[in-house]
Amino acid sequence: MNEAAPRTRIQKRNREIILEAALEVFSAEGFRGATLDRIAEAAGLSKPNLLYYFPSKEAIHVALLAGLMDTWLAPLAGIDPDGDPVEEILAYVRLKLDMARDYPRESRLFAQEIVQGAPRILDQIEGPLKTLVDEKAAVIRAWAEAGRIAPLDPCHLIFSIWATTQHYADFDVQVRGILRPEGETHFDAAHAFLEGLFRRALTPDGPAGAAIR
Amino acid sequence: MNEAAPRTRIQKRNREIILEAALEVFSAEGFRGATLDRIAEAAGLSKPNLLYYFPSKEAIHVALLAGLMDTWLAPLAGIDPDGDPVEEILAYVRLKLDMARDYPRESRLFAQEIVQGAPRILDQIEGPLKTLVDEKAAVIRAWAEAGRIAPLDPCHLIFSIWATTQHYADFDVQVRGILRPEGETHFDAAHAFLEGLFRRALTPDGPAGAAIR
DNA sequence: GTCTATATAAGGATAGAC
DNA sequence: GTCTATCCTTATATAGAC
User: Fold this and answer.
1) B23 touches chain A (CB under 8 A)
2) 0.90 exceeded by pTM
3) Which residue range(s) make up the domain with B41?
């Protein structure tokens, strides 16, 4: 059985079921905390059956991370060099916060992998991710040099967007614990806050350079 | 042996050695990924000797988190209601980023605990932490209502400060992977970037309310 | 393809000598 | 207080029937 190219329909389907279950368990418990028992239970399959589709627990984890990487980076890749600079970046912030709200498990999965030193995706970070960030950082830097946004370090801007948006997924319990008894509306407040934060940061100063302070 | 009140000097010392080793291992591997073997090795003690000082692996983890909590929250507690609003908050940002640089293991320890749902410190979050945040949020809200800082949601401001500063500790490998081949200087750049980001966010608009946009 | 049963190893915790 | 030896549970992975 070629792991990368499942042949039958049922193989494809079962691999997807397993990866969905694995996402649920790995994101909640971390790699070591997750057990094949719990993944099998979540998938509705037997443990040996899991290992019929994937050679090992680690292989499931790697397949999961690899399969999600492109989706996870799509919003950044979507920044359009020909768009309006401020609106492009603010749209990116919005999209990332939407992803934190709609796909918190994916966020936590990556977060735990990276906090632990990214043992299984370090090459992805230093390869494709770095390439993409370099590319978009160049776009943002050009915007800054043209005076179309405030002069900001592009990489640290990207980091700050990742940090502030993913925070709502990764530290969800803490956010809820502090905001309680607010309901689910805190994502609306977060949207408004981050829009204000980054719009102020990005908007170039007025002609006199005295607009702020 | 009362765990909370070690009697002899050697007990105190060994408990500290164990907690230091535990911080090293738990922060790198997470609670489940860490093993008593590795903690014992890092502490230079035998595994049963660890369990002479602490009743269980979990007890070590709990003692570690509890012992670090106050230190971890000290910078927020230090925000002075009588100080200059913008400078107080910027000083807090600076202090938090210094802590991310100087105490990354503590940051990663808390990060992993919270990402996994804070099973062992949920009461700390909903109790003392929430109380402290509520208190400081009230201070910040008063500043905003007095027009001494821009009108921002205090809780989301605090979240954004936590997120952006702790990011440099928690996602250190990713930051380094992307910034490579920059050396250790990226914390200076981060300081400058975050000072700019939050100063712009906090500074109240001019009299006409037209300073920005 | 899927299961039951099981091999094998790792890891938390204890017994008991010193 | 500290160690060696060991117990026992949990967990990954495999064997082999169906």
Assistant:
1) no
2) yes
3) 1-55
